[in-house]
Specification:
It is a single chain. By secondary structure, this protein is an alpha/beta fold. Helix content is 33%, strand content 25%. It has 2 domains: 139 residues, ornithine cyclodeaminase, domain 1 (2-Layer Sandwich); 170 residues, Rossmann fold (3-Layer(aba) Sandwich). Strands 1, 2, 3, 5, 6, 7, 8 and 17 form an 8-stranded mixed beta sheet that branches. An 8-stranded parallel beta sheet has the order 11-10-9-12-13-16-14-15. Helix 5 links the parallel strand 10 and strand 11. Helix 1 packs across helix 10 and helix 3 runs parallel beside helix 4.
């Protein structure tokens, strides 16, 4: 019996095979719509905690039905992500705190066809989902106003860096204010932002509140930690778009409660996380981002929009398939015989 080979794609292979930013936005929007239109099967994350509450392992399987009734273009696979915060702590092994692996399966036989380093994919798909929300729900300042979008970015880690290209692409001419608890990391991100296409200016803010002051778009991508729900209504402009990527690390429940529109990427996942205590006092979402796209929902005439996205395994698979196809066409990766 001849079994198909297995292709392994390292982080470098994935970065070299990553689609351009506009295609990434399309893949993210396709994922959000699939989550809303019934074409995707997405069970809740399965979790373990091998080192107590400070560590986790999450299994994120997903299935996307394609247009072919035979199932040839279905998408089947899983993301396996493990977090050990002590990896980077003093005396630790000096490894990343979170590591993810993505497995892509043949939709007809179930055999694994590719294994991908999940780090670059997680960063790219997360920023792309933010980009979809920003493109649809950021205020239209109008060319006649002479104003540029002011963006407040809290968090200058991997996710902060991955958001730069997307922000510059969907909000060309943006003025960026960055805060991170690590000042040197914030300075490094600002230097990168100043050479990013579409970002007009970038500066380090003295604090988180200063970063979002007068911003019409706020993105929070801070590391999970002691800070929790500190960004309250009085920090924010009345019509700001707020895109929390770090759960409720910064965004307070009152911001979502009082918003004119509160959106999430996948309602079931959000409700499960709220039940687990990660979104205390948050309201039910108005709708999902995908349903808002399908139904043509527009931002309200006044009031804030909050677009929270927690990340889904389906997004990793949608991006993974595009990357795996590009890598195979270019002969990238390591082919492992069975």
């Amino acid at each position: 019996m001849h079994l198909p080979p297995l292709r392994y794609l390292s982080a470098d292979d994935i970065v070299a095979s990553m689609p351009p930013v506009e295609e990434r936005l399309h893949l993210a929007e396709m994922t959000l719509v699939a989550l809303a239109d019934g074409s995707a099967e997405l069970p809740a994350k399965i979790g373990i905690h091998p080192r107590g509450a400070s560590s986790f392992g999450h299994a994120m399987p997903a299935h996307l039905r394609g247009l072919d009734p035979e199932g040839h273009d279905d998408l089947v696979g899983m993301k396996w992500v493990v977090g050990h915060p002590t990896n980077g702590a003093p005396g630790g092994p000096g490894l990343p705190a979170i590591y993810a692996t993505i497995v892509m399966n043949d939709p007809l036989t179930g055999f694994p066809r590719a294994i991908l380093d999940g780090g670059p994919i997680t960063a790219a798909r997360t920023a792309a989902v933010s980009g979809v929300a920003i493109r649809r729900f950021a205020m239209d300042l109008g060319a006649a106003s002479g104003r540029r979008h002011r963006v407040g970015l809290i968090g200058a880690g991997v996710q902060g860096r991955s958001h730069l290209e997307v922000i510059g692409h969907v909000l060309p001419g943006a003025d960026l204010q960055v805060f991170d608890r690590d000042h040197h990391r914030a300075e490094s991100l600002v230097l990168a932002a100043r050479s990013t296409a579409g970002i007009a200016t970038a500066h380090v803010a003295a604090g988180a509140r200063e970063a979002v002051h007068a911003a019409d778009v706020v993105v929070t991508v801070a590391s999970f930690g002691p800070v929790h729900q500190v960004m309250t209504n009085d920090w924010l402009e009345p019509d700001a778009l707020v895109v929390p990527v770090d759960y409720a690390t910064y965004c307070a429940a009152e911001v979502a409660r009082d918003a004119g529109l509160f959106l999430v990427d996948e309602i079931g996942q959000f409700l499960a996380n709220r039940e687990a205590g990660l979104f205390d006092d948050y309201p039910d979402p108005t709708t999902s981002l995908g349903a808002a796209i399908l139904d043509g929902v527009e931002r309200p005439a006044s009031g804030r929009v909050v677009a929270t996205h927690l990340g889904t395994g389906l997004a990793d698979l949608v991006f993974g398939r595009a990357i795996a196809r590009a890598a195979e066409a270019a002969g990238r990766g390591t082919v492992i015989p069975r």
